[in-house]
Amino acid sequence: MLKNKISNNSELSVALKRVEQLWDAQYQSADGNELHQLADLIFAYEQENLNR
Fold this sequence. Notes:
Elements: H1 9-22, H2 30-49
Helix pairs in contact: 1-2
C-alpha cells in the first residue's frame, strides 16, 4: 500500500485501516517499518490538509 504521499481522504482511510492491522507490529520488522512509514504519511497529510 505504501506510496510517497496520501492525496485524498479516501487514501487516508485506507492508510488508517492498514495502521489498525499493523498496530502490534514488532519494532524494525517489515510490518513495523510499514507502520512507521504510514504514520509519517498520515501526519504529513493531516498537517497539510486538516490544520487550516
